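The protein record quoted in full:
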Amino acid sequence: MKSSHSEFVNMSWMDKVFQSIVYGGLLFAGILVLYPLIFVISASISDPVSVNSGKVLLWPVGIQLDGYKLIFKSPWILVGYRNSLYYTVFGTFLNVTITFMAAYSLSRKDFFGRKSITIFMVFTMWFSGGLIPTFLVVRSLNLIDTPFVLIIMNAIIMFNTIICRTFIQNSIPKELQEAAHVDGCSDFGILFKIVMPLSAPILAVLALYYALGHWNNYFNALIYLSKREYQPLQIFIREVLVQNQQIDLDDMLDFETAFQRAQISQVMKYSLIVVASLPMLIIYPFVQKYFVKGVMIGAIKG
């Protein structure tokens, strides 16, 4: 602390102004990111009347858990959590494995037909068969209403493959791979002992991207899954929200009941955001340390 303070004192006034602007901008950006998060959490545990009247600005007012109680009244929420975790873990593993294998192959200049295959794969980024042909293919493979459909579909995304290939080409020296090959290391040995450890940062990034995609997957589940025991969390959360927003004729005759349901519905929206986002918020700090670890491995061994 003393050394940083002395360094700041010894700076020129231009450097001090620049550093103050940088820290001020970072502080402002941090507030913009943190405020919505804190507000959503506070609103989800606040009194519905206080939330709808605008009394909740940052901290919770009249702490209640009615929104969470209504959500977890449905036994299917836990089933959705189980399914989403299953799709996220196994789907991400398959995504990262296939993407990394394809990226490593396309990064090798001695790979026959590398340019033609790259052009063929990049073509799919702009042109696809569409929803109906895709549905027909999935149905012909007997994947409808099976848990494998959400894992196999979009097993590889070409944009992520290009990012991974570019990282391997620019960050891992070709001479390092050639030296390992001269020392008797096989192609698989080069892949698993050299390329993969040095690619830890990009693997962590790919894992995070794919995991978020699987966790938030909603459309594919809506199209290809009708069995409730296979549906992910997002489908059940939508059902809970829609059911709570529906007002029966008896409720319409009772104005007070309808008003209370409208108020609790607003709180449920914030509770649903927390329930759906909490697992990813918990996982992210653990993934972040692998970013730093991967960078250090690349700096030492590269």
